[in-house]
Design goal:
With 135 residues, the protein is an all-alpha fold. Helices cover 67% and strands 3% of the residues. A hairpin with a 2-residue loop joins strand 1 and strand 2.
């Protein structure tokens, strides 16, 4: 069964606690929650877009392209017990501490939500000004 890029984007996005709206916001003005939803249904995502998404999610594009949940589960089940090698995941060497990476991503997520909140506050203030001007 071929690897489904869109489903992998969704998995990584959800693991990072990022909503579709948040990913859309980070990808740029032309993105919406609906467009992210449609993207997550695509089996194959073109490399340029995959690179952009990977940059936002702060994961390697190859991880999105090649992540296979069944293989990962198999490797975890068969390599975890008695293993002292935290870096071996799906036959690849990982050169970062997963916990440090998770904390870093959570901090980035917090900053993203703060920017989203600030953006919403600015919109509300602008709407109030517009409505005041109409009375």
């Amino acid at each position: 069964m071929p690897i489904h890029h869109g489903r992998n984007v969704k998995r990584f996005r959800e693991m990072l606690g990022l909503k579709q709206e948040g990913l859309a916001y980070e990808l740029g003005e032309e993105w919406t929650q609906k467009r992210v939803s449609l993207l997550e249904q695509k089996e194959v995502i073109e490399q340029e877009l995959l690179d952009q998404i990977a940059q936002v999610l702060k994961v390697p594009a190859e991880a999105i392209k090649n992540f296979d949940e069944e293989t990962a589960i198999y490797n975890i089940q068969h390599n975890y017990e008695g293993s002292n090698n935290q870096g071996a995941i799906i036959g690849h060497q990982v050169n970062f501490n997963p916990l440090d990476k998770l904390i870093e991503v959570m901090d980035e997520n917090k900053k993203l939500y703060e920017r989203l909140l600030e953006s919403e506050k600015e919109k509300v203030a602008l709407l109030r000004e517009v409505l005041k001007g109409q009375h």
